[in-house]
Amino acid sequence: MTDKKYVVGLGEVLWDVLPEGKKLGGAPANFAYHAGQFLGMDNTIAVSALGDDQLADETIEALKEHDLNDLLPRVPYPTGTVQVTLSGDGIPAYDIKENVAWDNIPFDDDIAKIARNCRAVCFGSLAQRNAVSRATIQKFLDATPADCLKIFDINLRQQFYTQEIIEESFRRCNILKINDEELVVISRMFGYEGLDMRNTCLKMVTDYRLQMLVLTCGTNGSYVFTPTLTSFQDTPKVEVADTVGAGDSFTGSFCAAVLNGKSIEEAHRIAVKVSAYVCTQNGAMPPYSPELIALVK
Fold it and tell me: Which of 25, 49, 214, 255 has the fewest CB atoms in 10 Å of its CB?
């Protein structure tokens, strides 16, 4: 494993338990899969933890079906689940079970080796809700090479974040990905309320010495801010099958394009095109066409 420079999805691996059945979820595996479509599946890996239960075995099988490498140590906690219930008018509610395997990712020798051989890593705030996984994620980030892309895909969920966790993550990342709703929360939390959206993003780039800040605004387009340029792309109008995994496909394809030497503007265009395609497909990990893969070559 350690003779390659890896692109890593680090954090929660879980199952969404829906009324019609369960589906493998979690942003880290999605990110690794989408980056791997462009960089080669041998070069990407999902890092988390599993329990010693049937769901863990099913997780391994599901990842194998997508040719996705994994480093998922077994720990004495149940494999993670999210119970999804629907109200009478179809609005989903989520119960993200606590004290599960991905809350307790150990920083062992195997994970340390991956960190030292890491080209890029994507992590979020949800997997840092527990002190054990938070410490592992921080140690992983601190062990990566100086030129590693460290993407903080903030993913605020329910009550599972604090200002301290967010700020520590800002200081450890060099690329921040955030959506417009999350930006409002962060603006209030960090005292940026007097600024408009653009100036808030530019101030965060300066305050935390970010290489880039990626802001997604749903149907209103997306931006990439750097210290020297701003890129904007409209959101394409497509026939949506579902939006599961679309955000992770944006992040994974953007990361892959940057690693392959594309300009910020070109990487942004590719990410928008890929995420629009994923919206037209069912599931979080659809296969890519050769024409789509060729965009990053």
Answer: 25
